[in-house]
Amino acid sequence: MSTAAHRQAADKPIEVAVALSDHPDGPANTLVVYDWFSHIGTPPRPGNLVEPLVDGEAAWARVKGDLERAERDVRVSSWMLRADTELERPESLALAPPEQRADLRFGALVEAAAARGVSVRVLIWGMTYTPMLNPWLRRWYWTVPPNIDVLEQDHPVLIGSHHQKTLTIDGKVGYCGGMN
How far, in Å, CA of 17 to CA of 29, rounded? Predict the structure, then answer.
């Protein structure tokens, strides 16, 4: 798990030093984030934990668990949402046909959360054909299931795109970046 040390000097802004490693047993590198990075808007607050997730299997298992525990809201922004991605593949189902693993897909977990009354909002880079090609987005976009809203964000340049990849759950847990 990452550790953070806060230090402040009289003539320097607050810095946050975070120990990072590509492997739990590997050497730690230090990432220093200076206060100037966030001087506009909400100020940094103590009590937050940033933990780099570098193992896809473990990261997606955590996302799955957090989606299953969602109580209030799920917010997703993505460049190319692949709702058919299986977030876990238990060894017992490794050779099973896809329909036996359907409940492990991101889209199924999102729909299950919405069925529990969780508000789901999806912001996706809006190529005109996106909802037509992706069966999950087509269903969410055109049939408007309860508690799921999809918004496409068009880019003004034909080949431009927004490449954000974020997921927040109940305003308590957030993921950013991708594991592709």
Answer: 10
What distance, in Å, lies between the first and last C-alpha atoms of the chain?
Answer: 22
Sheet of 15-20: strand order equals: 4-7, 15-20, 29-34
C-alpha neighbours within 13 Å on the C-beta side of residue 148: 21
Q: Are residues 115 and 143 in the same domain?
A: yes
Let me know whether 142 and 95 are in one domain.
Answer: yes
By CB atoms closer than 10 A (0-12, 13-18, 19+), residue 15 is: middle
Q: How many domains does the chain have?
A: 2
15, 37, 52 - which closes a domain:
52
Q: What's this model's pTM, rounded to 2 decimal places? A: 0.70
Q: Do residues 27 and 60 share a domain?
A: no
pLDDT in tens, 105-132: 999 999 999 999 999 998 887 665 565 6
* Structure-token match 């340049």, residue found: 157
Please tell me the distance from the alpha carbon of residue 50 to that of residue 5, in angstroms, as a whole number.
12
Domain range spanning residue 132? Answer: 56-176
